[in-house]
Amino acid sequence: MDTILIIDDNSAVRDALSLLLNVNGFQTDVAATPTAGVKRLAQGDIALVIQDMNFSRDQTDGSEGKQLFYAIRQDFPDLPVILLTAWAELETAVELVKAGAADYLGKPWDDAKLLATVNNLLELAELSGQQRQQQRELSERRQHTAQKYNVAGLIYQAEVMQRLVETALQVARADVPILITGPNGAGKEKIAELIQQNSAVKTGPFIRVNAGALPADLMEAELFGAESGAYTGLNKTRIGRFEAADGGTLFLDEIGNLSLSGQMKLLRVLQTGEFERLGSSQTRHCQVRLISATNTDLPQAIRAGAFREDLFYRLNVIELQLPALHQRREDILPLARHFLAGRELSLEAVRALESYDWPGNVRELQNILTRASLLAPSNIIGVADLGLPAAPQLAPRPAFEPDAEQIQTTLANTSSVAEAARQLGLSRQALYRRMDKYGINHS
């Protein structure tokens, strides 16, 4: 069990706090001086510190407590510290809370409030420790992936992307069609490139075709080729993309836009590896790994009669769902720094990028930062340089003052004060102060 360290020169205070905490199931240790306290911290196993603000008889301004707090902060930046303060040192205590102290309690303290504070701080510290451990594990997984595989320059930090990459790499060498779904601009082609680079046909051609950019009357000729004279203006044989991709990979983007006639021919290629060029009766053969992508709701298109159900099931042997950028916000800054190529972002610009919804996803982010890099007058990219649409999320956040009913409802629907504070957009200390203000108790 982790220990709560009490640092106070008054033995009566140390004994009273130790008794209170021990009776309520906490393990404690004590130190009478800042030096002894720092020495005990160095031994480890301390989960929380309760410290006094004065340790010498002639000191009443809290300067000793301030010095002790910053000494703890330097070596243990994540360790929660509760300050015990008299009214004379209140201003200093408030300053230290702003500097990162977890909370302050006046003397004499309220036992119930102190216990509630300790419980919630330890709960949050455990959660933070778990989150840090998860981040370390995720970082190790990313490093292992990058060392073992060719990630095709893919930039990401989000857990959801790591899972997607791991799945894509797992199926990359299987000789089955893969369907990548997700919104426009999210990076479906990049995932296709990652699959191709780690496939059994990685040394073969990698042919890309955007079905959404092709006129319907030219789509079949683009995919399957056409003989000279097959349509007006074609004076020589045209090699189709399937033929060009023989022995390699064909990435067919926006497959939901393929005509029904083209869908039928595509189904035949997938089933038999056979096709004919337009204007020819000669059957040709190819061995192609097909990766397709779409932002279309294909099941809905099937119900509307716009997409063949049998083709859908041939394409959808493996489906990889690529999330929108706003669903993986951890990726925004790494991608932004990559696109800026050495330029810096102001703090306000960082906040704007992280709060914007990115309807155009990674493509929109790249376009905005490319423009900002060209037009910004200095090396620091500011909010104005981004040219994001004026929206509430770009304005300074107003002070948030939830009322008593909102606080009570949030507390009733969450498992802890820490979680309620997160949902209300407040610090734990701020929530406690509002609970005191409104007379709200939470067991």
From TrEMBL:
Please report the name of this protein according to its UniProt entry.
Answer: Sigma-54 dependent transcriptional regulator
- Sigma-54 factor interaction domain ranges (all copies): 154-374
List each copy of the Response regulatory domain by range.
3-122
Supply the source organism for this entry. Shewanella electrica
Write down which residues bear the modification named 4-aspartylphosphate: 52
Q: Is the keyword DNA damage in the record?
A: no
* Superkingdom of origin: Bacteria
State the taxonomy lineage: Bacteria, Pseudomonadati, Pseudomonadota, Gammaproteobacteria, Alteromonadales
Q: Which InterPro entries match?
A: AAA+_ATPase, AAA_lid_NorR, CheY-like_superfamily, Homeodomain-like_sf, HTH_Fis, P-loop_NTPase, Sig_transdc_resp-reg_receiver, Sigma_54_int
Recite the UniProt keywords alphabetically.
Answer: ATP-binding, DNA-binding, Nucleotide-binding, Phosphoprotein, Transcription, Transcription regulation
- Classification via CDD domains: AAA (cd00009), REC (cd00156)
Q: Which SUPFAM superfamilies does the UniProt entry name for this protein?
A: CheY-like, Homeodomain-like, P-loop containing nucleoside triphosphate hydrolases
Q: Which Pfam families match?
A: AAA_lid_14 (PF25601), HTH_8 (PF02954), Response_reg (PF00072), Sigma54_activat (PF00158)
